Recover the amino acids of this structure.
């Protein structure tokens, strides 16, 4: 087979949202991907700079409607759409035979849950195309790398499940038991760009609020699917733009030492280029603007409790950064290519 010399043609839908724009930004400097088409809902008919004026002349690319023809002739389709829009669009592409020549990265939630009954319970509706759902691979790279490499469709994880699962995996490997308790805080960009009373400046600034409590958050079944354990999850919105910190707590087995817990973490992630197990607790600023995950492990031997503290950028490793990581794996490129690893400091 002759090696490909031209970049892969990418169509990006949802570019007027935070995750979509972050995906566009990261793809601009990637040597093997070229964004050739943009689509959005209310932004259709405008240019990129109309939604993101800071781009100036660099934002002259037009934004079109997400039609069937949008996907024709592409190598890669990246969907950064609100929940419920990706699945019916994918069904229409399947009916036209377009999916046979296309690989898809979905940054939304339509294809993350493998069980259709669980999906219906979490999202309040039947899945519109379960036949495509069967082809989807959950895109937590450190968990499913080999399957991602050949997947026609990768369902990028949510930001909360990414941070929680990366930490809980260590605790489970160390023999911890009981439910996974995850108390997480997130910046407001995780709520998306669509305005709402919960994300107004006057509501967010100088305040912290829990939401989606009592097991009602849609990310709970996503976490339980990957961890095969009950998850008690409490998310909090904090007055920050981007960043996420997960405090993951489990019951520690008798006799577990901090050295053993740290060894479990080092063994799991020793060869992972975007996961750092560190000696001191991380801050969200440590990973801002990057595709990294920073993890600190702690053991309370008196109360028999083990904890993992995980910091990610919710738009980086929690969305577009992990999406690019998955695209690199899907097409056989170096996994960290195009992914920032130096944080935006101060």
């Amino acid at each position: 087979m002759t090696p490909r010399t031209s970049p892969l043609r990418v169509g990006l839908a949802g570019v007027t949202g935070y995750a979509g724009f972050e995906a566009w930004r990261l793809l601009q400097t990637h040597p093997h991907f070229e964004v050739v088409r943009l689509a959005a809902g209310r932004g259709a008919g405008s240019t990129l700079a109309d939604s993101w004026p800071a781009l100036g002349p660099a934002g002259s690319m037009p934004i079109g409607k997400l039609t069937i023809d949008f996907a024709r002739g592409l190598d890669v389709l990246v969907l950064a759409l609100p929940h419920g829009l990706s699945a019916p669009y994918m069904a229409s592409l399947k009916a036209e035979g377009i999916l046979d020549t296309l690989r898809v990265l979905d940054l939304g939630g339509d294809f993350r849950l493998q069980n259709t009954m669980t999906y219906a319970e979490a999202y309040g509706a039947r899945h519109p195309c379960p036949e495509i759902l069967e082809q989807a691979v959950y895109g937590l790279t450190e968990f499913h790398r080999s399957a991602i490499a050949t997947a026609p469709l990768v369902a990028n994880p949510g930001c909360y499940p990414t941070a929680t699962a990366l930490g809980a995996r260590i605790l489970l490997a160390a023999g911890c038991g009981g439910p996974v308790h995850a108390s997480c805080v997130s910046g407001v960009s995780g709520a998306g760009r669509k305005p709402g009373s919960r994300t107004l400046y006057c509501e967010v600034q100088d305040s912290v609020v829990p939401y989606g409590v009592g097991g009602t958050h849609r990310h709970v079944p996503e976490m339980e699917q990957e961890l095969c354990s009950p998850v008690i999850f409490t998310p909090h919105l904090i007055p920050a733009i981007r960043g996420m910190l997960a405090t993951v707590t489990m019951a520690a087995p008798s006799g577990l030492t901090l050295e053993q817990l740290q060894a479990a973490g080092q063994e799991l992630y020793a060869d992972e280029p975007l996961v750092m197990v560190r000696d001191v607790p991380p801050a969200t600023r440590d990973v801002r603007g990057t595709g990294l995950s920073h993890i600190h492990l702690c053991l309370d031997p008196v109360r028999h409790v083990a904890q993992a503290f995980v910091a990610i950028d919710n738009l980086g490793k929690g969305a577009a950064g992990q999406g690019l990581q998955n695209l690199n794996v899907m097409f056989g490129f170096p996994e960290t290519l195009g992914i920032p690893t130096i944080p935006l400091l101060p």
